[in-house]
Each structure stands twice: as C-alpha cells, then as structure tokens.
Amino acid sequence: MKMISLLGSTGSIGVNTLDVVRQNRNRFSVVAMAAGNNVELFAQQVKEFKPSLISVFNLSKVSLLKELLQGEDVEILCGEEGSLKVATHPEVSLVVSAIVGSAGLVPSLAAIQSGKDLALANKETLVIAGELVLREVSDKVNLIPIDSEHSAILQALNGEKKEFIKKIVLTGSGGPFRTFTKEQMRNVTVNEALNHPNWKMGAKITIDSATMMNKGLEYIEAKWLFGLDTCVEIIVHPQSIIHSMIEFVDTSIIAQLGIPDMRVPIAYALTYPDRIECALPSLDLAKIKQLTFEEPDYEKFPCIKLAQEALEVGHSMPAVLNAANEVAVQAFLDEKIPFKDISEIIRMAMNNHKSHNIDSLEDVLLADRWARKEVKKLITVTH
User: Fold this and answer.
1) Quick one: which of 204, 171, 152, 196 has its CA closest to 13?
2) Tens of pLDDT along 118-129?
3) Cβ neighbours of residue 356 under 8 Å, at least 6 residues apart?
4) What is the domain partition of the chain in residue ranges?
5) Which residues of 214-243 are buried (b: 16+ CB within 10 A; e: fewer)?
6) pLDDT tens profile 201-216
C-alpha cells in the first residue's frame, strides 16, 4: 500500500488523481490532502478518502470546512504552514504536487527535502526554481513528471541513456486558436479561449494552451528535467495523440502515444517505474486515421519565444516570466485586458526587470513578488 499526500486536490489534476486512487484502493491510500478555495468539493473528497490530515489554503474558508466536516476524524490546518505539513507527512512516501502556479513551489521543495518522492504536475516549480529544486533531489528521491509531455519523455527514455539523446520533441495541440489569423485573435473572448479542442483542464492552464505559453513553460521544464544542454524542439500536433518524442543520435525516434486523458500519466507517476491497468478506452489508430504535424507560428504565439528568452537570460528571469503570465492570464479571465495583451504585458515586465542571481528560495520569491507588482502597475497604466 503506497501512502500518498495530495497537494491541490480540488483542481483538475487533483480530481483525476483521486479517480485513479478510487479505481485502485488496494494500492493507494491518501493520508493527507490540501486544497485552495473549493471547500464544498474538498469536504466531499475528505469524507470519501478519509485522510488523517488536511489543509485549506484560504484562511477565510476554515470555519466553513470545519462545519462541513463536523464529526469526521481529521486534523484540519490552513495556510502555507498547513500545506507544508501535508507535503511532509511522516507516513507518506509519495507527494503529488497539483497546486496551480508558483504557489506550488514551497510545499514541493519541502516534500523533496523531507525525502519524499515527488509526482510533479506543477510545472512552475521547475520553471521558476529549477536549479534550487534539482540541488535538493538526491539518488534516494524520485522526481516524476505528471505533465503528459514530460511523462512521455520519461517513458521514451526507459532503458536508454541520456547521453544518446539528439533532441527532445515536445508536442502541443496548438490550442483553440491554431487556425485563427492574427486579426481573428485580436478580439477572442474568454469563453472561446477556454474551449480547448482536446483536453479538459483548469482555467489557467487552458488559457496557457490558448497562448501556447504552456509550451514555453514545458520547454523550460524539459531543460531542467533532462539536461540544460539538451536540444528541445516544439512541434504542433493537433490530434494530441503523440505526447512527445525523443530522437537519438542514430536518428531513431521513440514516441509515446495515448488517448488525451491525464489519468494515464497520473497512473504512471503513482506507480513509477511500474504500470497498472486503467479503466480507459484504448487508442484506436484506425479510427483516428491520420496524425499531422506543423511548425509553431511564433508570430501568432509570441509566448513561446518569451519563455525561451527567459531561460536564455536565466537567473531570476524565468520567475518573472511565470509570475507576469499568472497575473496577465487572471486579468484576461477577469476581462480586464484583451487576449492579445497577455504576451505584450509579459514582454514589458521582462524588459523592465534587471535579472539577479537565484541563490535561495527568498531570491525566487523576491522576483515573483516584483513581477506581480510590476504587471498590476502595467495593467493599470495601459488599461
């Protein structure tokens, strides 16, 4: 029986993780859970999975949560301190980090430092603090990516040596605006941006897919996971069947294929390096008929280049890129800025930032706070 802590249980990845656990109760036990705001769903999850320790990040939700869980035998904590307790629970061997955004960094880092294996869905952890995180990862700790692309790379690497990699090919669907012209993209609505053609995800990552910032963040994450000097190429694959590929030095290519369902990479992360049966439909290639590929349009989707530039500058710039994106995406969701301004605001924040070294967690958080303040100021001035 594998004991699990789940950070971000009410989000898309958290809900799917619990579904995998639900289908495999003889293999997994959820000992501790943390959520952000959705206490109604959180309470239902707690009643079903019976963790001994839980935490809600939003302090104003604690009273309601306690009321909803009256009579349940569970310890209830709150805030960042509560998340840290969930991440470092002594009975746990694997922590699933599914918190959205940079808020996932501190508990993810704490989990690694306490010797837990980390199943990482929170790509921002490596984007903003890759060097710090990898410094803490030892031979005794597994860092297992949940992102479908990085899970695919990990699977394609199985039994292979990293030094034989010629390049990594990250695939992306192209999002809902792949076939739009730049003119058409000027006035897209929030509802249109949230209408992903293949994947069911949370709002923030769905917008990141629409801007293709998700590919930029995944580019940075891949560099940290598989080697900064590794060549990483991005290609648009509208069907979302090939989740990523590796070309080796002999020009052989190994690709991982599967249905676009996050429960597949989640199940692999929970059982790594083993596999379990999933009660999901098999991939029917005859029904799909064809798999197509195309180059990304960097002019329509400038966020990809912004991410690549941020990694090239290094130091604090990826943290600024990420925080600026989080604030700009939320502003778009709140209908304070148009879709086209997301990338421009990120660019302005990066241009205004003087990159500094990242030697500690506080250095990361300093850059994050600066960028959030800067972007809010830019939005106020320009809108």
Assistant:
1) 204
2) 999 988 899 999
3) 315, 316, 363, 366, 367
4) 2-145, 151-259+282-382
5) bbbbbbbbbbbbbeeebebebbbbbbbbbb
6) 888 989 999 999 999 9
Tokens 């860092």 sit on residue: 143
* CA 198 to chain CA centroid, nearest Å: 17
- Can 2-145 and 151-259+282-382 be said to share one CATH topology? no
Residue with tokens 């930032």, as numbered in its chain = 353
Q: What is the per-residue pLDDT for 140?
A: 80
Per the CB < 8 A criterion, the answer to whether 91 and 123 are in contact is no
Query: 164: which 2 tokens?
Result: 């034989």
Are the CB atoms for 197 and 176 separated by under 8 Å? yes
Angle between helices 361-382 and 317-333 (to 10 degrees): 40
CATH placement of domain 151-259+282-382 = 1.10.1740.10
> Which structure tokens are listed for 42?
């959180």
Say if residue 273 is preceded by a cis peptide, omega within 30 of 0.
Answer: yes
Q: Output the pLDDT for position 329.
A: 97
Residues 6+ apart with CB under 8 A from 96: 4, 5, 6, 7, 13, 14, 17, 119, 121, 146, 266, 269, 270
User: Domain 2-145 is of which CATH architecture?
Assistant: 3-Layer(aba) Sandwich (3.40)
- DSSP per position, 270-320: HHTTS-----SPPP-HHHH-----B---TTT-THHHHHHHHHHH-TTHHHH
What Rg value do the Cα atoms of the chain yield, rounded? 20
Cross-strand pairs, 145: 120
How far apart, in whole angstroms, are the C-alpha atoms of residue 277 and residue 270? 12
Task: Return the SS3 of 55.
Answer: strand
With bands split at pLDDT 50, 70 and 90, how would you rate the model's confidence at 361? Answer: very high
Strand partners of residue 53: 32, 75
